[in-house]
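Notebook B, p. 112. Complex prediction, attempt 2.
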Amino acid sequence: DIRMTQSPSTLSASVGDRVSITCRASQSISTWLAWFQQTPGKAPKLLIYQASNLHSGVPSRFSGSGSGTDFTLTITSLQPDDFATYYCQQYDSYPYTFGQGSNLEI
Amino acid sequence: QLQLQESGPGLVRPSEALSLTCTVSGGSINSSPYYWGWIRQPPGKGLEWIGYIYYSGTTYYNPSLQSRVTISVDTSKNRFSLKLTSVTAADTAVYYCARHLGSTIFRRSGTYPHYYTDVWGNGTTVTVSS
């Protein structure tokens, strides 16, 4: 299985800040990577697919980059609704696997 | 707008089978290029991909669960289902059904599916306990 490792596991920030979360794959996954946002008690929501494509309806302050094994999710000008847990997922090969999550807190 | 809704028992006894159904509304399960699948999340933990099915019946499962899992589709009722046998406390989780969107790349070396999850159900909590 491809192992996905996110860092940091916890990140403290303030409204208006710019933050980045990284995701590293244990082998190359090209750009077959998605990012999700999850708030407590809710289902995850898709933010980014194929490493850098913004899902419909997602604010432009979210962006993704990377290819191969190293990927980054960047959020500019943090809003109150952005404090959540973020997961990366590879869909290059079976079984699809997720990172352990990064908790973005105030 | 496409919506997915999970249903099924919230409590399952150890060694028995867990059965959940996902009803799709606002769209047809017969459409491509979509797979329909399941993802779970144990309490306080991360996400685990279980597997998915195409409307034709083609399935892919996580090898860690493959011996116990079956995903099936009922196109006449626009729904798909999950069955997980011989459950233990480790199967206690929120179970999400989800639509997967993407493409399959065909090369001389083989077939390479790449499908990401774009629509999720709200999730249903299943507890395994006697």
